[in-house]
Design brief:
binds zinc ion, mainly alpha, globular, single chain
């Protein structure tokens, strides 16, 4: 097998393993539980999951989607999160090759997946009042984004301005909305997520991502509200921000030409 194919396969498997870890983070961070202890167990019968059933994707297939001990159904979202993370890691590697940018975007995509998926899963979970985006991804991620900018594009100045621009781009509308409508429109998690994105990508993409997420939000959010039959249903806006940021990293050149045509 050519080395490149082998390497791509290896990256995909690494992505699956990180996806498996992401499942733990998604389940535990919004509940403020430890992410290292205790080991994974069946949410229905509490039996500890055997290590060979914990292998990403393969474990789910071996178990045919059911707990070995109680026969309870295992949610299909676990293998889907693993698969999605594996595919995203592979796409990052195929785009950025063997470079520091691949490492940077592995981390960035992992944080976006964590933030976006936790937001949408907690929004759908009756245990929570609305979608939650844990600070670990956003505030922790912003620090990591700034650190990467010492050694990668867009550089530390743009990264710091980006973090501020990201924060303000959603804080200002949220503040105005609250002032005039006297109710919460945008969660603090969304604002911190946009700050993290600015720290990773610099200030220029912030405008596109705010704009892009608003478009995705109105395309997908409106049907969601209608489906839920609840006009106060809080759409998981963090998910749309994360999707817009992922689109940006893969189509940066095309988007920039579209937004700043005089640069051509
Ligand atoms: Zn069980």
């Amino acid at each position: 097998m050519p080395l490149f194919v082998l390497l791509s396969l290896y990256i995909f498997v690494i992505g699956l393993v990180f996806g498996s870890f992401l499942n733990v983070l998604i389940a535990r961070l919004p509940r403020e539980l430890s992410v290292v202890y205790p080991p994974s167990s069946c949410p229905q019968c509490g039996h500890r999951i055997r290590f060979y059933h914990n292998i990403p994707l393969i474990g789910f297939i071996l178990l045919k989607g059911r707990c070995r001990d109680c026969g309870g159904k295992i949610s299909v979202k676990y293998p889907l999160v693993e698969l999605l993370t594996g595919v995203m890691f592979l796409l990052v590697f195929l785009k950025f090759g063997i470079s520091l940018y691949t490492l940077k975007y592995f981390v960035f995509v992992f944080l976006l997946l964590g933030a976006g998926l936790t937001d949408v899963f907690t929004a759908a979970d009756p245990e929570f009042e609305c979608g939650i985006i844990p600070d670990t991804y956003t505030l922790g991620g912003a620090v990591v984004g700034v650190l990467f900018s010492f050694v990668t594009y867009p550089g530390i100045t743009s990264s710091l301005i980006g973090a501020a621009a990201g924060f303000l781009s959603l804080w200002v509308p949220a503040f105005l909305y609250k002032k005039f409508r006297r109710q919460e429109g945008m969660g603090g998690g969304d604002i911190k997520l946009m700050m993290m994105i600015g720290a990773f990508l610099g200030y220029i993409p912030v405008y596109f991502i705010v704009f892009g997420s608003a478009i995705i939000g109105s395309l997908l959010g409106l049907p969601l509200v209608i489906l839920k039959k609840d006009k106060n249903y809080m759409i998981p806006f963090g998910l749309f921000i994360a999707v817009a940021a992922v689109v940006y990293i893969f189509f940066e050149a095309q988007i920039m030409n579209l937004m700043l045509p005089e640069r051509l």
